[in-house]
Amino acid sequence: MNNLYPSLKGTITSNSKGGGNASPTPFFFARINDILVSPNTKTENFFQDAGGWAGLGSVKFTPIGTTVDTGVTTKLIARPLFTNIIQYPILNEIVMIFQAPSYDLNTDPQAKTYYYLTTVGVWNSVHHNIFPDLTTFNKKIANSIPEKEILSLGNSFTEKSDVRNLLPEEGDIMVEGRWGNSIRFSSTTPQKQPNNS
User: I need a surface site. Which of 27, 34, 68, 78 has the fewest CB within 10 A?
Assistant: First the structure.
């Protein structure tokens, strides 16, 4: 683990009481640098490094609290934990990451890989919750990088100002997409203002 990222061990370990021995925490948070949604990626060899077609949905990440040179691409890769319901993050969103058994388990009983669980709702928005690294952001501004490249949300994701979260009712179970599409399982309630559609 130390070879992949020099400061990662310090980011995801904590001192145990009294003895001073470090033990890994169950999870940590990281910022998304790239996501694999097709064989054509902006990061060289990402498709192969993530396992080819079996790696679709994988992300490259930088742990929060660590700094990466903007010219260097992280080698840390995490896969989606769930395969039936997946919330793919976009660039600069923060996700929860932890280690769990990998597909090499039969040859190495200790084999583990990184998985991501969910996007952190920093802004409590269904549209996006990006939170860029300000050091990198400020360097791009200082280097006169074009505005649309300063804060990239991805290859095809475009921010919209008119996407809003549904207003909840008591007991609701809701599934909301990033573009205002939703499924709501709710009870019949008196009409309230503002209108909840």
Answer: 27
